[in-house]
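REQUEST ID: PR-0412
SUBMITTED BY: lab tech R.K.
PRIORITY: routine
TASK: structure prediction, single protein chain
INPUT:
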Amino acid sequence: MSYDLAKFVHLTGVIMLLGNVTATAIWKFFADRTDDPRIIAFAQRLVTITDWWLTFWGVILTIAGGYAMAWIAGLDLWATDWLFWGQALFFGGGLMWLGLLVPLQIRQAKAARGFAGEAEVPESYRRDARAWLVWGLIATVPLVAAVWVMVAKP
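STATUS: complete
OUTPUT:
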């Protein structure tokens, strides 16, 4: 694999990951505000679908391309400060996503399947949706910071 191909894979993954994370938060926020159980349930289903197709594969491509570039360039992953901090930020954000957001998302998906044909959205779903949005914004900060570290190489 050439360095340019590895860079292309890495950047494609970053675009998929951050693009899906931000776009999903925006359209889910507006879907939840409609108070229409059908729209909310449909949006929640799409969160799951896009997370598998874009976020998951974005993470895989980001990691594969990034490590391939470092290997091709002969960089030490732990002794190069910007590489160390970029990885730490990326994995720190990932831990927040896996530990907090994925369980919230699973609960919301189960709830949405149950209320899709109902007249009201339960308060428990709304509480989880607010927590998902807040923690999603918080967990996105280290991902964006990792991109800055990788670009600026401070």
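NOTES: The mean pLDDT is 95.
REVIEWED BY: pending
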